[in-house]
Design brief:
alpha+beta, OB fold (Dihydrolipoamide Acetyltransferase, E2P), 21 strands, 12 helices, 416 residues, 7-stranded mixed sheet, 3 domains, 4-stranded antiparallel sheet, Chloramphenicol Acetyltransferase
């Protein structure tokens, strides 16, 4: 008996997807609920799992564009001869041998180190065996999944991502070229970016922030914060909090056009641009105006892990009223971020660099960051955009002001 595996619907209005990558081989024995293939839509990537165990028969090749609901493979259930085939495959596979291994610390030869390194891994027996077979450095895998029990899926994700990151083109002096079909996600991203440039009146205004205050807070309270909440306090949470306060004062920046109407939400949904293996994705912090710094950090960590593991869903990215992107993690000193439609503004963070600045008539060295606000001039005037960015700068340089919604605490004390 064969069970069909069909392409599930990734969301409304999506009728076609692209089969990005098979995670198993044709004729391989698979388990129930095992991820077998990655599918790319024009909004997100998602895996497809098996409904039951059996032998998989692949019907669609990688890179093909297929309709939602199409059959891409079948599963032959484990009965009679199929069961024998499964037993044979398992006897020859690393998974069968892995069951004989024990969960105690193992001796693994780190790559490229010459001397064997003893590392205590919190991993399943099968994961341990795969680590040995694929010669994965156990220190790298534990850093990639801190505090987590390593599974077979984690190893596969780590190895796949590392291959993508280290893949290079060999320049041989010949006149050959490499061609690779663009993914549906990349094609859709290109369409959206071109439409933004053509259909909006986008401008960018710049400022710079002295990050000394925030850096002192992280240095003084970082360990206490991590012990209390289980996550480090990063720069993004401060920027998110500052943006929330500034948007309350300048709600026009939180607005967007809908035909001939201006829509101004009474909530703040912050999109956080995150680099994923297949490109940039923008998951959303919903009702961020209700979140504390700790809640923001925890949610950002959750979404970043999902993005890294290609688990981001369309629901995670729906909506958003304002976006923050951080090119500084890649070393960018200054850039003009592009709008995330239908939003009307996006804030760009950049690299922190020590520079000489004038303070009270004296030249001092300070950790400075350029920040950029790109905005749709059809919705936001220059005065509002510049004032908004200045407010963000003030809040970041005096973080305590975020507690008082940007008001001077002394003036509040004096009822001024």
């Amino acid at each position: 008996m064969a069970t069909e595996i069909k392409v599930p619907s990734p969301g409304e209005s999506i009728t076609q997807v692209q089969l990005a990558k098979w995670l198993v081989a044709d004729g391989e024995a698979v388990e129930k609920d095992q991820e077998i293939v990655e599918i790319d839509s024009d909004k997100a990537s998602f895996p497809v799992t098996t409904p039951e165990e059996g032998i998989i028969r692949i019907m669609v090749q990688e890179g093909e564009t297929i309709a939602v609901g199409a059959v891409i493979a079948t599963i032959e259930t484990m009965t009679g001869a199929n069961q024998k085939a499964k037993n044979k495959l398992q006897d020859e596979s690393p998974s069968a041998r892995a069951q004989e291994s024990t969960p105690s610390p193992v001796h693994i030869a780190a790559v490229p180190a010459v001397e064997p390194v003893t590392v205590s891994l919190h991993a399943s027996p099968l994961a341990r065996r795969i680590i040995e077979d694929k010669k994965v450095d156990p220190r790298e895998i534990t850093q990639a999944f801190p505090g987590k029990k390593i599974t077979r899926k984690d190893i596969a994700s780590f190895v796949s991502q590392k291959k993508e990151n280290t893949a290079t083109i060999a320049f041989t002096g010949t006149r050959e070229v490499d061609r690779k079909k663009l993914t549906t996600l990349r094609l859709k991203l290109g369409e959206r970016l071109v439409s933004v440039k053509n259909q909006t009146a986008m401008l960018t205004t710049f400022n710079e922030v002295n990050m000394q205050g925030i850096m002192k807070i992280r240095e003084k309270y970082g360990d206490l914060f991590k012990n209390r909440f289980g996550v480090g306090v990063g720069f993004m949470s401060f920027f998110t909090k500052a943006v929330i306060v500034a948007l309350k004062e300048f709600p026009q920046v939180n607005s967007m056009l809908d035909g001939d109407e201006l829509v101004t939400p009474r909530f703040i949904d912050i999109g956080i641009a995150v680099s994923a293996p297949k490109g940039l994705v923008v998951p959303v912090l919903r009702n961020a105006e209700m979140m504390s710094v700790a809640e923001i950090e925890l949610k950002i960590k959750e979404l970043a892990v999902k993005a890294r593991d290609n688990k981001i869903t369309i629901d995670d990215m729906k909506g958003g009223t304002f976006t923050i992107t951080n090119g500084g993690v890649f070393g960018s000193l200054m850039s003009t971020p592009i709008l995330n439609p239908p939003q009307s503004a996006i804030l760009g963070m950049h690299k922190i660099q020590e520079r000489p600045i004038a303070v009270n008539g004296q030249v001092v060295i300070a950790p400075m960051m350029y920040i950029a606000l790109s905005y749709d001039h059809r919705v936001i005037d220059g005065r509002e955009s510049v004032s908004f960015l200045v407010k963000v700068k003030e809040l970041l340089e005096e973080p305590a002001l975020m507690l008082t919604e940007g008001m001077d605490p002394v003036k509040l004390l004096l009822d001024l």
